[in-house]
Amino acid sequence: MKNPYSLLIIVFFIITISSYSQNVIRLESCENGMMDKQVDSLKNLYALDGYELLKEASIKMESEFEMPVIVPLTEGSWYQFVFIGDYSSRLYEVRMYDWNERMVIFRQKKWGDIDGNVISYTYIPKISEFHMMKPVQVNKQKKKNLCGYVMLFKRKTEQSIGAAAPASAHDAYLK
């Protein structure tokens, strides 16, 4: 090559193109005043029901795109997973997969449902392994910057020994 800088320019050009070619959805937090009130209420209800909060995150989502959440779960422990979607969305879904990518939970809610934008479920894993939860929401007006909130609770051990299957605190919240 006649010019040593031409190789450097070509390499820089290739790196620039490859960095723009990947459309990666990055985890970003968001704020929603109405959702914050729901989060606080559900935290209090699950605490009264014997659960401790393990993980929580507000997440900025896009309509019709799943946001994977990976968590380690322990065999025989009772977990409560909660997803709160943007109030203006029309459809909310959560799928949960085990380590072998087998779907173990599927929940769907629509805007007109009584509990609307909240999906919650109890899960007791058969073996200790990582699980992936994939919440998604569909919104016809807002395609980007939808706010979502995920929480993972674990039932305190002294309350789970010899107890019957847990009732959902969210069901009590609705009554």
Q: What would your notes on this structure say?
A:
It is a single chain. Helix content is 25%, strand content 36%. With 175 residues, the protein is an alpha+beta fold. It has a single domain (27-174), classed as Sandwich (Jelly Rolls), CATH 2.60.120.380. The strands form two sheets. Strands 1-8-3-6 form a four-stranded antiparallel sheet. The longest helix is centred in the first third of the chain and has 18 residues, at 4-21. The chain is globular, with a radius of gyration of 21 Å. It starts with a helix and ends with a helix.
Domain count: 1
Number of helices: 4
Order of helices and strands: HHEEEEEEEEHH
Roughly how many Å apart are the termini?
77 Å
Q: Give the C-alpha Rg.
A: 21 Å
As an assembly, this protein is: single chain
Q: Number of DSSP strands?
A: 8
- Regarding CATH, which class? Mainly Beta
Instruction: Give the biggest sheet.
Output: 4 strands, antiparallel
Q: Structural class of the secondary structure composition?
A: alpha+beta
Could you name the CATH topology?
Jelly Rolls
